Amino acid sequence: MPEYKHFPLADTAEGLTEADIIAWQVKPGDTVTVNQIVVEVETAKAAVELPIPWAGVVTELLVEPGQTVEVGAPILTIDVDPDGKAAPAPAAAAPVAEEPAEEEMKPLVGYGSKAVVTQRRARKGAAPAAPAAAPVAVAPAPAKPAAPAVSSKPKGGYVPLAKPPVRKLAKDLGVDLHALTGTAEGGVITRDDVQAAANGSAAPAAAVSSVDSGYDPATRERRVPIKGVRKATAAAMVQSAYTAPHVTEFLTIDVTPMMEFREKLKKSREFAGVKVTPLTFAAKAVCLAAKRTPDVNAVWDEAAQEIVYKDYVHLGIAAATPRGLVVPKVRDADSMSLKELAIALTELTDVAREGKTTPAAMLGGTITITNVGVFGVDTGTPIINPGESAILCLGAIKDTPWVVDGEIKVRKVLQLSLSFDHRVVDGQQGSEFLADVGALLADPAVAITY
Fold it and tell me: Are residues 242 and 338 in the same domain?
């Protein structure tokens, strides 16, 4: 007899409470193996691919792409015994505990630090349940979960893609979504598709309705739901801005020697094929300067009423991605050479731009660098990441008239800004740190004196 299991949205060990379904990698009828990737979700921090802990045949996808699901809610049903070879549950039954665990799902490989357990309180007078060690057998048709919005029963293994309002419209008009081909991106069925089917005509090819796109022709406005990375970033910035008293200082420096040194490194054998950018020098400068001013690498612990000083630098790099701002970390950046930093930064930014940064890579930072100079902006007043006490902002490097030995010359000039938590970092420490970073960027040879 078939044995059905519900695959819940797993906690990816980042304090996850919900996630958006991006894309399914399987469909009803597909045979899957243990730890096969079945779905891609977008959490508050990144896009994550989730593997399934069982082998079997997918019977139903319970959530559609674009929907938001809470952790622990079932998103897929799988038949783990399609051939009916599993041993039947023993006839003898053990006494029912007050709150027995119906099923325990083992943590997915690489995700989660604890098991996900679903429980149901026993009703008085209910029949005793099977022992916990016995496999859980469910009726041939899997029960519908109550948590997320569930798609209609698949026909021929096909699950139509449509938003809930479009599904309601189809139901009201008596249109079978299984008979339609969506014209929106990814084959999503729109209101126009449903209405065209109800009128007996084909929907315009590749036409996206104004309602589905969020655009209202009457107001000429477009509304986009606040989800995923954007939602998490907004919450973190508001928390930081209204919790940590921010102070921002500015420094303008001549980085002509740094840019000349960069050209020398590009021609050296040791740095062949290594991408060395101004961000690379800034990362090294921050690590060196933090050793002289450890306050900027500390954090205020409100609950314990302590300042926690870190003897390591997990350097955060703010990166703009298609899904929003993310801040992955270079672990133990202070122990890396300039070349190692350059390689690590290149890998980090490439992965971030592809939207493949893992949630774990964005946790535990101690200090951050944001580079607005890549957008041609001179400087800014960045907001400190929660859990840190300082963030350095790099502006654009521009040719600027500069006084050198009493003469005006055209030099490569950069503006720096440093925001810091005034509960942890006093003006003296903040100024000393910014001055040290500036000195190292203005003349990389200063590093040998540190």
Answer: yes
Cα distance between residue 62 and residue 73, in whole Å: 10
Q: Which range of residues forms the domain containing residue 258?
A: 229-449
Q: Strand pairing partners for 4?
A: 79
pLDDT at 334 over 90: yes
The tally of CA atoms less than 13 A away on the side-chain side of residue 93 is 9
Measured distance CA(23)–CA(174) in Å, rounded: 28
In the β-sheet with 74-79, what is the strand arrangement from edge to edge? 4-8, 74-79, 56-61, 31-32
* Predicted TM-score (pTM) above 0.90: no
Six token digits for residue 42:
């977008």
**CA 302 to CA 364: how far, in whole Å?**
17
Q: Which residues are identified as catalytic?
A: 422
Q: Are 204 and 183 in contact (CB under 8 A)?
A: yes
**Token pair in block for residue 68:** 């938001």
The structural domain count of the chain equals 3
| Residues 377-416 pLDDT 10s | 999 999 999 999 999 999 999 999 999 999 999 999 999 9
| 221 shares a domain with 319 | no
User: Of the ranges 44-48, 219-223, 444-448, which is most confident?
Assistant: 444-448
> Considering 158, 181, 210, which residue would you say is the last residue of a domain?
158
